[in-house]
Amino acid sequence: MRDLHGVVRLAFILACFCATPSFAGTAGRFEGWQPEPGVDPPSYAVIDPQSTDLNIDSVVLACEEAGDRRVLQLQIYLSTEGPLGPKGVSRQRLKEDSRAEIAIDGRIFPVGILFADEYAVLADETERMVPQLSERLLDAMEKGRTMILRFDLVAELAGQPLAFDGEAVITLQAGGGGKAVSAVRRCAAAVGVAGAAHDGP
């Protein structure tokens, strides 16, 4: 996995000024994947965790602009003002060098985690310094049954090993399931096809 910190963090912060739908305060509304209504292909699909011990409201598979193409990101929207953290844990106990991983049906995908004001982004690759999901991770999301987002956000006491301290469980086949994920993937693919059509003399 490429480094998603440092200069990438700056690029991500700049990218966050782009218009992004707000999903804060919508807990309980998305029991399965719900793609953007009335748009084909949709630019996002949103789902609520089946269970979580973090202040996570909704999880969004989003199609975002990245120069002359589009990338897919997993965006984590919060149920509180933030930052992302385990419920009941004070802001002072959170650490700067947080980490995360995604588990889908037992397969582990290490991911970088980056933060904006209203949401966090999980990604395992970058495209021109913009965080994105890899094709293999998207394949797993489209075909898998259960996705677990694991986070290490709280500072360990001296001498303690690193450990994940919060998670969110997503039922991938709820609602539109893999069809919703596939539809959002077409949002990113459409730009590549259009660009290829204009290549040449």
Structural description of this entry:
This protein is α+β, with helices and mostly antiparallel strands. Helix content is 19%, strand content 37%. The chain is built from three helices and twelve strands. It has helices at 7-15, 135-143, 178-197; strands spanning 34-35, 44-47, 51-52, 56-66, 69-78, 94-104, 107-115, 119-123, 125-127, 130-132, 146-154, 166-171. Strands 1-2-4-5-8-7-6-11-12-3 form a ten-stranded antiparallel sheet. The protein has a two-stranded antiparallel sheet with strand order 9-10. The protein is globular. The protein starts with 6 loop residues before the first helix and ends with a helix.
Q: From the alpha carbons, calculate the radius of gyration and give it in angstroms.
A: 17 Å
N to C succession of SSEs = HEEEEEEEEEEHEEH
Distinct helical segment count: 3
User: What's the total number of strands?
Assistant: 12
**Strand residue content:** 35-45%
Sheet with the most strands, sense and barrel status: 10 strands, antiparallel
Helix and strand composition category: alpha+beta
Biggest sheet: strands side by side, in what order? 1-2-4-5-8-7-6-11-12-3
- Shape label: globular
Mean pLDDT: 82
Secondary structure layout:
Blueprint: H1 7-15, E1 34-35, E2 44-47, E3 51-52, E4 56-66, E5 69-78, E6 94-104, E7 107-115, E8 119-123, E9 125-127, E10 130-132, H2 135-143, E11 146-154, E12 166-171, H3 178-197
Antiparallel strand pairs: 1-2, 2-4, 3-12, 4-5, 5-8, 6-7, 6-11, 7-8, 9-10, 11-12
